[in-house]
Amino acid sequence: MNSSIDSPTRDGVxxxxxxxxxxxxxxxxxxxxxxxxxxxxxxxxxxxxxxxxRWGEQYALVGPYxxxxxxxxxxxxxxxxxxxxxxxxxxxxxIRAHVxxxxxxxxxxxxLLDTAGLRxxxxxxxxxxxxxxxxxxxxxxxxxDDNVLFGFAVVELITALRRHLPARPLLVHCHxxxxxxxxxxxxxxxxxxxxxxxxxxxxxxxxxxxANDNIYDHLDQIDAGRAAATCGYAHRxxxxxxxxxxxxxxxxxxxxxxxxxxxxxxxxxxxxxPNGINVARFAAPHExxxxxxxxxxxxxQFVIAHFFPSYTFDLDRTLYVFTAGRYEYRNxxxxxxxxxxxxxxxxxxxxxSPATVVAFIVTKAPVRGLNVDxxxxxxxxxxxxxxxxxxxxxxxxxxLRIIATGRMPRFDELIDQYAQVRLKRMMFSxxxxxxxxxxTHDLVDDVNDPVLCHLRHRGLWNLEHDxxxxxxxxxxxxxxxxxxxxxYDQFVRGCHMGVFPSYYEPWGYTPLECVVSGLPSITSDLxxxxxxxxxxxxNHDEVGMYVARRRxxxxxxxxxQVTEWLHQITLMNRRERIALRNRTEQHAEHxxxxxxxxxxxTAHALALERHYAGRATMPPDPDAPASAAQPPRxxxxxxxxxxxxxxxxKRRTAKSKD
Length: 658
Hints:
By secondary structure, this protein is α/β, with parallel strands linked by helices. It is 44% helix and 14% strand. The strands form 4 sheets. A 9-stranded mixed β-sheet has the order 5-6-7-4-3-8-9-10-11, sandwiched between helices. Strands 16-13-12-17-18-19 form a 6-stranded parallel β-sheet, sandwiched between helices. It is globular.
């Protein structure tokens, strides 16, 4: 490799660079590095072990510095030698960098950029973003302003690295529009790096679907620019589109998102990069049935506390189904879920079903606090449980003494009169006549909340004769929850089915988390995950991975499908449910990042090839099968991609300006 490429310096003078070595360095840029804002945090966190395994010390993540999250997510350390001088230069520009290891599996290095010192230049930076790239701004959009500052800080970091590591091929992979500002700016400046941009959802698609627009029925008729301007996010849409156009390789997470990306952003994705998961975190091949039983018992305790003061039902014939995710009533399919529950309730009552279904709706909504009645029921249950534990120890001691004498004890010898009176008092105070609440918290807008309005409209009041009970928990479940006292993963394991019939879902981690936990789940063909199942698992319904048809189908058809699957699980006996969970769990390994991560490696290799024309290669893939050097592209991915975008900087003359 004796050839070299030309790279312009900041003053526009073109100078030759030394020959490039083969080893490239990957910098992955995201707004959600070390801080959970949305689903990309899960992508980065779960992908890290596979990425570190592939790239080793040639990999680092770049994100904004947020002190409150960095304190608990990052172990700081001194920057490596190759990074010291570039970071010193950033200090002179008012950008302070914090370097450390992300405290997750794989422990990748992170570079967190504090842009507070750049804020005085915000107006200037927004002006050049408009002047050089045609991207306007909107007054009062503070998040956008922070994204602009972060984007220019990333540009300065990459420029400094390029200057001090002239022989090292650099690959910059940016996720979503929040990290996309740097891409058109670097392209305008002629910064010599290979680039990848991944959109996990388009701004236009997400917002139109949230506004109840059936975009997939008239995708070709939507004017993305006009829609963005009308709804007030044209500047964000402009960044998204400019990033897609500027990157050497453009990717998205699913075939369904690729359709809207091509329409709304004007470029067909080159590679699809489906989201995987770190299966090792969930793996329990010989224990997942035991874990299910233990987690189910903890859910039983909540159900006893919540329902049994009013009435009782047979817990051995009780099934737990749930939906979870961001509170987007229509996009996440909450409307389909609630309507299906209402129809299932009527069907089970008509059949005289002995089973009970408790359905949980877990999302984050504005609340004032926990409902007083819910708290009282939980407190009473805790007191009753503590009293029974005390009496249990005394009964055990008395039982041993009496049995040791060679005779069977009488009831009054085991539980004395004081204990009996105590238990009777607690039982009487435990009973409550009102039906259990359908929501565990006091919502800020109880009257207009869409979930509550739908539950009230369909008469799901948790009455004693209802076979379907509902618990709307408008907060995420964690070990700190006074109601459950368990984390979300344990909660998922304790349920019998997850239901996520989304209308707009670029990928969908919630059904994937069910699969790796050995839990049957329902998704939709308008989610990336559902589209992936249809393309890759023709018998997905037989193994507990159900895909509801929503694309081109009326609401009624989708509801009927979901209702039927829910009804089927109520008819199964325990052995049949265990067999179904076994079939589901057997497919978990397919979704591990060691498998799906290869689509990312394909995108990275393609970007290096397009930019460096064969003078840079990726590290070898330790997980690649011997028979296949590169993974196949997913169905629907572009085979050739758009024409290769040669950097204008390679053809610029001395008249070019920074």
